[in-house]
Every structure is written in structure tokens, then in C-alpha cells.
Specification:
single chain; 230 residues; two-stranded antiparallel sheet; 10 helices; globular; disordered C terminus
Length: 230
């Protein structure tokens, strides 16, 4: 009889963290909502120990806030928080792009191109969750190609606060199409090793997302899951 292989505790809470992060990013747990441990345990089919460890990880990322006497709630940013954080991430993304254009290898560039085509397919299907997932990987690959560990750590910390908002920034056909076009141009500039051009594009790309998110906040349209409309 084959031995039963248990899932290591660390791997389990990382898996729970990944799933819980997805629920928050995709707005199944809206900003400001309390994380109901009992319901989440039932939904994710885990005990409270790995769930609580996952919540602590997300609190460190900035997606969850731990409040006295209230427990854990999904982070809710003010308009000023959003504006300030997008300004910072725009600068970090711009620097990542400039350095990546100088340091990226052909293999890394080929991987980004492949991911870009996968993202384009998701865009064509109007599959926003898959599109966003691949989009986030592309941005991380560009950051990694910059080969600056301090930049990578800072980027990961700041970007974690904005994941849910970046997901919901492609809220209508025109804005999503613009973002897709900007990604097409990113690949072109990386291929051309145009660091200055890529930096400028990435900064504008993030500021465009900031403007979309602030407009959604202004009209109270961040409270529901995003629906792409023509």
C-alpha cells in the first residue's frame, strides 16, 4: 500500500494565501469587508490555522488590515492613498523598464513576448481574470529583468496594496483596449532596448490606471465586481 503523503504546512498556507488573495483582488471580498474565518474555512476547505497564517501574510502585503476588536478586513484605501501609491508605483515601474531595457536577456524577452500573446488571447476572449493574472506576471518579469533586488522588494511591497484596484481598472472596452495597446508598445520598446521610451510609457501606463481608479471611486463604482462593457 502506498504511503500517504501529507501536504507540508508551509505549502498549505501558501496555497490558502494564493486563493484568498485572488478572492480579494477579484472583489469577491470587497474593500472594508471583514474576513469571516468560519465561512472562508468552509469555502477553502481548510482549518483555521493555515487560514490565519495566510491572513497574516496578506496583512504583510497590504491587502488585509488587522484591526483591534474587528479582526481582519480587506484593505480599503482612500482616494488620497490611491493617488499617492500610484505615483510611487509609476516611478518604480518606470525605473524597472529603463533598467530592464538595458539588462534583459534574449531568453527573458522571448518569455515576455510569449506571455504577451497569451494575454492578448485572454483579452480577445474578454477573460479579465486570466488577462490580469498574465498582466501581473509580465510586469513582474520586467521588474526582475532590471536585476536590482532593492527595486524588486520595494516594488513588490508597494504593488501589493494596488492589486485589487489594478484588476478593476480595465472597466470598459475603451480603457481596456488602451491598456492592451500600451502593452503592445512595451514589448516593442523592450525589443528595441529603448530604456527612456519604456520608462516614459510605463509611468504613463500606471498614471492612466490611477485616473481610471479615481474616477471609479468618485462615482462609487468599485463596490461590485468589474464588468467589461462595449
Amino acid at each position: 500500500m502506498a504511503d500517504i503523503i501529507s501536504i507540508p504546512r508551509q505549502v498549505l498556507h501558501q496555497q490558502v494565501c494564493t486563493r484568498l488573495r485572488q478572492l480579494i483582488v477579484e472583489n469577491h471580498i470587497p474593500p472594508g469587508s471583514k474576513l469571516n474565518e468560519r465561512a472562508l474555512c468552509e469555502q477553502l476547505k481548510v482549518s483555521r490555522t493555515p487560514l490565519r497564517e495566510a491572513i497574516k501574510m496578506l496583512a504583510a502585503e497590504g491587502l488585509v488590515e488587522l484591526l483591534p476588536n474587528r479582526g481582519a478586513v480587506a484593505m480599503e484605501l482612500s482616494a488620497q492613498d490611491v493617488s499617492d501609491t500610484f505615483e510611487v508605483i509609476a516611478g518604480l515601474e518606470g525605473l524597472s523598464g529603463e533598467l530592464a531595457a538595458q539588462r534583459i536577456t534574449e531568453a527573458e524577452l522571448a518569455e515576455i513576448r510569449a506571455l504577451h500573446f497569451e494575454m492578448l488571447a485572454a483579452y480577445t476572449r474578454r477573460d479579465l481574470p486570466t488577462y490580469y493574472s498574465i498582466n501581473a506576471v509580465i510586469h513582474r518579469h520586467i521588474n526582475a529583468a532590471a536585476r536590482n533586488p532593492v527595486l524588486t522588494q520595494t516594488y513588490a511591497t508597494v504593488n501589493a496594496r494596488l492589486q485589487a484596484l489594478r484588476f478593476r481598472s480595465n472597466c470598459d472596452e475603451a480603457k481596456w483596449a488602451r491598456a492592451m495597446g500600451e502593452h503592445e508598445r512595451m514589448v516593442e520598446l523592450l525589443t528595441a532596448r529603448d530604456g527612456a521610451g519604456l520608462r516614459q510609457l510605463l509611468v504613463q501606463h500606471l498614471l492612466n490606471k490611477r485616473d481610471v481608479v479615481l474616477e471609479l471611486m468618485k462615482h462609487g463604482e468599485l463596490d461590485s465586481s468589474p464588468k467589461v462593457s462595449a
